[in-house]
Amino acid sequence: MSAVVRSPSDTRENASRPSAAALNAAAASFAALTDRLDYLGPDDVEQVRRAYRFADEAHLGQLRNSGEPYITHPIAVAAQCAEWKLDAQALMAALLHDAIEDCGVSKSELIERFGAPVAELVDGLTKLDKLRFNTREENQAESFRKMLLAMARDVRVILIKLADRTHNMRTLDDAPREKWPRIAGETLEIYAPIAHRLGLNQTYRELQDLSFRYLRPWRYAILSKAIAKSRGRRRDLIQKVQQELDGAFAAAGMNVRMAGREKTLYSIYRKMEEKHLSFAQVTDIYGFRIIVPTVIDCYTGIGILHQMYKPLPGKFKDHIAIAKLNGYQSLHTTLVGPAGVNVEFQLRTESMHAVAESGVAAHWLYKATDSSSNSGERLGAKWLQSLLDIQDETRDAAEFWDHVKVDLFPDAVYVFTPKSQILALPRGATVVDFAYAIHSNIGDHTSAARINGDQVPLRTELKNGDVVEVITAPVSTPNPAWLGFVRTGRARSKIRHYLKTLAHAESEGLGEKLLAQALRAEGLATLPEDDDEHQAMWEKLLRFTGNRTRAELMTDIGLGKRIATIVAKRLLALLGERGERPDALTLSRERFASDDVVAQGAVTLDGSENSSVRFALCCRPVPGDPIVGYLGHGEGLVVHTDACGVGKRLRHRDAERFFAVEWADEPVRTFETGVVVTVRNDKGVLARVAAALADAEADITHVEMADETPLDSADIRFVIAVRDRTHLEAVLRAARRTSSVLAAARTIPAP
């Protein structure tokens, strides 16, 4: 057996160095948190201490990957929350946030011991721990929706979660390497953008750099070395600038606090990647942050800086007059410093600095001392409220996630209303986004717009400084095409909600018509009323169909999810139980026509049906054509011409889904149909044909020519909008009279 011989000096050194066990014990004790709780009252500190004791007991025996007691993690999370000066309830929830998930503690037990608010926070955080963002499956989208809604109702949920994620990222070295990409990836894609959106810039920058370190370790290491070398070379330059600044501000009698600011590794990497720059070409790595007493001092300080060094044109930004979306305020300017090196300066007050670093958390930091600041307006509150608005319009979790995703990384533009109110919108936002940002009623009835006094299309993208005027009309409604260009989640959810509501209302009306028609075929002249007399009968019918309400049943019939003839037969049987019998005369007159389609009581179409009725593209029927209606599965009524080959094949396979339809005497709009015009290949022939069609009052919606054109003639295919068959014949005659036209005819679908 061998012995290790230590020198007296080794013994003294080891005696003075704390053991690993001692360090762990210190980190796991409440003392690690005590110094940070000086802003709380004695009663609140005692409440936090109670939560610590409970969490310590619950996690007893559990270890982290590093070998440390597990309680060190909740303490670190609570310490970060204490840096933001969150209240006692939030600190208690931070200490208990893993108790339900990892220790089998029930929510009811937490309510009993610590009260409902703390238990609700812990329950919300427990749901967040189950989130995985690497897929788009419905349960994950639903969990994310719950997280954002919990955040909107109580922002402390996401603040604690961000503190939790920050500590996990700081200790990711201890996690298995195969987990690095997933954890770092979701941090970069989800949590860092949320931190940015809420104005937690210090946390945002740290999460970005930590994610970069674990996603791109080699590039992170190379950039770190390059920054260290650059820092050494430019130390003298930075010191010189600082000395000159100290002298200039002292001479002006201004009391300022100054700190150096270095661009984060991730932002340098992104700039190099996006602009294809080498490290040497990134010139604004270093900067200065100058904290001054008042807002006036910010502008005075800018004047002093611009007298000292030459400003770069276009690099002055006033984020005090126009704050960023997340509440950030500061003056930015980039100056050419000594040796021609560009240096960025940021000037702000202490309260602005707190908001810049802590965002919504500054609500707690400054709520007592800065009563003049409208923190509810500035600190992400509008975005949080918009989450609740989107939720009101969107019940589908995946759709909710789609809406919110576009708002997570807003590169803002700032525009003005005609009354000079400033609105901040994501870059790429359009006039329609602007209209919905003002009010949903304005968005729903937008008909036109002016930017800086000039009329513009609704899809026009807004630029900084634009003065936008929205023109509304009572008859205007959201257009499905708007979904192709709007940028904000609020506008997208409002448009979709309106269109869905409209589609359901129209489908309900169509369903009533189809069911009434099917009942006439069974010998009943009218649909039974939804009154007290027939209530029991309707309830039995709804149990048969599986619908909750009569309106839902009618909507399902209109969408093709229920077959009207089957529902009508069941309704007839229920009426028979009540002693009501079919009318023999109605039955004999309206039973069936020879082509197996209900002949009488046809559904009348005038073109105002919008989404509940579609006109088939294979045959493009127009008023005057004999038509039939096919009730597709979940797609409403599809109208074909009687001679359409596609319609005939569907009728042979699915006859019970066909219904009689007929044109109204006076349709309210034009209808598209296809025509083919055969022409000689003369110069300008397309222009002449198009002019002839326009002169005949036909709107051209599409034109197409074959790629391989013969030398002598060519077919030009048009889709045109006409009023009816009579108008179509007049248009074709006008085309045939045009010079160089050999033939003109309507496009006939294949049999």
Walk me through the topology.
Layout: H1 8-16, H2 20-27, H3 31-34, H4 42-58, H5 72-83, H6 88-96, H7 99-103, H8 107-114, H9 116-129, H10 138-153, H11 156-170, H12 180-197, H13 201-215, H14 217-233, H15 235-251, E1 257-262, H16 265-275, E2 286-292, H17 295-308, E3 310-311, E4 317-318, E5 331-336, E6 342-349, H18 350-358, H19 362-366, H20 375-378, H21 381-393, H22 397-405, E7 412-416, E8 422-426, H23 431-438, H24 440-444, E9 446-451, E10 454-456, E11 468-472, H25 489-521, H26 535-545, H27 550-559, H28 564-577, H29 584-590, E12 603-605, E13 613-615, E14 627-631, E15 637-641, H30 645-653, E16 658-663, E17 671-680, H31 685-695, E18 699-705, E19 713-722, H32 725-736, E20 741-746
Parallel strand pairs: 2-6, 12-16, 13-15
Antiparallel strand pairs: 1-2, 3-5, 4-5, 5-6, 7-8, 9-10, 9-11, 14-15, 14-16, 17-19, 17-20, 18-19
Helix pairs in contact: 4-6, 5-6, 5-11, 6-9, 6-11, 8-9, 9-10, 9-11, 10-21, 10-22, 11-12, 11-13, 12-13, 13-14, 21-25, 22-25, 23-25, 25-27, 25-28, 26-28, 31-32
Report how far the terminal alpha carbons are from each other.
99 Å
For the sheet with most strands, the description reads:
6 strands, mixed
CATH superfamily of the largest domain: Hypothetical protein af1432
Strand content: 5-15%
Quote the CATH topology of the largest domain: Hypothetical protein af1432
Number of E strands = 20
Could you list the spans in which at least 5 consecutive residues all have pLDDT below 50? 1-17, 133-140, 363-380, 592-600
- Label the CATH architecture of the largest domain: Orthogonal Bundle
Helix segment tally: 32
Helix content: 40-55%
Structural domains: how many: 5
The secondary structure category is alpha+beta
Mean pLDDT comes to 77
CA gyration radius, whole angstroms? 35 Å
CATH class of the largest domain: Mainly Alpha
Shape: extended
**What is the subunit arrangement here?**
single chain
